[in-house]
Write a structure and sequence with these properties.
Helix 3 packs across helix 4. Among the domains are: 62 residues, no CATH class; 60 residues, no CATH class; 108 residues, 60s Ribosomal Protein L30, Chain: A, CATH 3.30.1330.60. The chain contains 5 helices and 7 strands, in the order H-E-E-E-H-E-H-E-H-E-H-E. The longest helix has 21 residues. By secondary structure, the protein is an alpha+beta fold.
Length: 333
């Protein structure tokens, strides 16, 4: 059985026999149960009968050499080495295993992050694992699985500098004022740069010139709405039943474009009394306006005016011309 003797005995022995060794504090030695063998830190074997320094002589028997062999030269005899084959120069503990001070499973000699806290999962370098490689260890990462290249904050979540709920990497409108409701691109849902009444998010024609009347897409309207198929009972402002389908479609168009305002303009031909024609044209314009209001169009978006025969679009000398002049139009305001 091999046992370790006290340093004092080694000092006595090595001094008495004048061994050519370094300071005793740098040496290790072993003795058998009868104290018949010592070994220095350099692998030298000495035999001393009954532990008497005066009887010491260099050399060990084969069995003792085997017991004291240290194949990986880590200072721990093979018989006691729990980790044989340790690489040269690796600091080991009393069992001959590589020292792992922070007990993370990575030997100190290979640990690039010594002192890792207990329980933290580490990579092959002994550093805290960072599965998504965002620079924040998994143990602190509140947003695991962040896509590559995304800038993150200290908690591992995508940076959102203006705190609008849209990450900087996707934010088309950085520095949005606090409290602003934004779209998926981080832009103010109500922002209307060209002031045409259509928010940027829905504006298919950004940059429309000031004052331009646009449709619900934010694009310029090129014409007023002429109600060619709207007819009235003869000499009255009562809308013909056959005209309701046309007016229903007009109401839908106006409801789809709630930012637009119109003047409902009534017109007649030149036949008959002028004042009567003006009154009739106004009454018909009022009838159309009221129909549209009843169909859901806001009243403050519509005005009505009768022009009588003052704005003909064709000659009043022919029946066809007079028919064309008897009309109601929606003029953009």
């Amino acid at each position: 059985m091999i046992n370790k003797n006290t340093l004092a005995s080694l000092v006595l022995l090595t001094t008495a026999i004048n061994l050519p060794l370094q300071a005793a504090t740098e040496q290790t030695y072993w003795g058998d149960s009868a104290n018949n063998v010592v070994r220095t830190g350099y692998g030298e074997c000495w035999k001393a009968t009954s532990g008497m320094a005066s009887t010491a002589m260099q050399g060990c028997d084969a069995s003792m050499k085997k017991e004291m062999a240290d194949a990986d030269k880590d200072g721990v005899a093979d018989a006691m080495d729990k980790c044989p084959g340790t690489m040269a120069g690796t600091p080991v503990d009393a069992k001959g295993c590589a020292i792992d001070s922070d007990m993370d499973g990575i030997a100190d000699s290979s640990d690039k992050c010594p002192g890792t806290a207990t329980g933290i999962k580490v990579d092959a370098n002994g550093c805290p694992q960072d599965s998504d490689r965002d620079g924040v260890a998994d143990s602190n990462d509140k947003c695991p699985g962040t896509a590559a290249g995304i800038s993150v904050d200290a908690s591992g979540c995508a940076k959102d500098s203006d705190r609008d709920g849209v990450a900087d990497s996707s934010d088309k409108c950085p520095a949005t004022p606090a409290g602003t409701k934004v779209d998926a691109q981080g832009c103010d849902v109500n922002k209307d740069d060209d002031k045409d009444g259509i928010a940027n998010i829905n504006d298919a024609c950004p940059g429309t010139a000031s004052g331009t009347v646009v449709d619900k897409r934010g694009c310029k309207l090129t014409a007023d709405i002429r109600l060619d198929n709207v007819q009235f009972n003869t000499g009255t402002e009562v809308i013909n039943a056959n005209s309701r389908n046309t007016l229903d479609n007009v109401a839908k168009t106006l409801n789809d474009n709630p930012h637009l305002k119109f003047e409902v303009a009534g017109h007649t031909d030149s036949s008959g009394n002028y004042e009567a024609n003006v009154r009739l044209s106004k009454s018909r314009a009022d009838s159309v306006r009221q129909y549209l209001i009843n169909s859901g169009v806001a009243a403050n978006r519509l005005t009505a005016r009768g022009y009588g025969p003052d704005k003909p679009v064709a000659s009043n000398d022919t029946g066809t011309g007079r028919s064309a002049n008897r009309r109601v139009e929606l003029n953009l305001k």
